[in-house]
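tool_call predict_complex ligand=fe (ii) ion
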Amino acid sequence: MPRATSCSSSTMVAASFVQTKARGRIIRYEYAYHPFDIVGWDGYVFPWAFSIHDFAPITGKLHMPPPIHQSFQGAGFVICSFCPRVLDYHPNAIVVPYNHSNVDSDEIIYYCNDKFGSRKGIEEGSITVHPLGIPHGPQPGAVEASLGATRTEELAVMLDTYAPLWLTKEALQIEDPEYWKSWQPKK
Ligand SMILES: [Fe+2]
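tool_result ok
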């Protein structure tokens, strides 16, 4: 998206050009200002980066699947942003995710704080990896603990990849070998 500068009577205005491709034709638009210099953008041209704090999560009456948190998509991956929001508002809603097993992607989550509804024991900077096919979800007691909650302050970023993720030696050095036990009931 190249920028150009044009002069009006007394001010310099930086113009931006956006090219869209449809039916084999490229159409060029000229904007007086950069199109991302706005509060919100509801279109098919995506910014290169934006603050997670500016993401407006979708909420619903009943629990909805992770794609409602999707904030980016690229070739072979999606990124979901779990942000502070009102929780599911049906009186009988279970507001934490259901147990699931990804059938087509590996899943890695980076936690920006320690307030993730379905998981205790995480802190800012924690990372979890759930490879394709491994069942996971709320820890024992998390569903019961969430009943009646109306809001979450969780902040986390999830990367789902459609090609396998392979752990590096460095990652193995910080692995918590007890992680799998977090789904076992406390005795
Ligand atoms: Fe998952």
